[in-house]
Specification:
The protein contains three helices and six strands; from the N terminus they run ββββββααα. By secondary structure, it is α+β, with helices and mostly antiparallel strands. The strands form two sheets. It has a four-stranded mixed β-sheet with strand order 1-2-6-5, with helices on one face.
């Protein structure tokens, strides 16, 4: 699977290997050339993690300079809002 973000097409790699970033175990990682999601977590968490990593990619591409806490807050808020408002999500997409 790939995702198009601005002018870039990034592969999304789903794997069951342990992901580590800066010494911390992660459910996902945004790299310069791909997004990686750990499939050992529940599917709901994988979905939110994918949104989280997409926000990191947007941050890198557009230079928003979000902190990790801002990315966490934004991904959680967007995920819950879209999940709980299917008609709005369907209208947007």
């Amino acid at each position: 699977m790939k995702i198009k973000i601005s002018w870039r097409k990034l592969p999304i790699i789903f794997s069951n290997k342990t992901l580590v970033l800066n010494g911390n175990i992660c459910s996902g990682i945004c790299k310069d050339d791909q997004l990686e999601i750990n499939t050992t977590y529940p599917i709901e968490q994988q979905r939110e993690t994918l949104l989280h990593e997409v926000i990191h990619a947007l941050d890198h591409i557009y230079g928003f300079d979000f902190s990790e806490d801002q990315v966490k807050g934004l991904s959680n808020a967007l995920f819950e809002t879209l999940k709980e408002n299917k008609r709005v999500k369907d209208f947007i997409f």
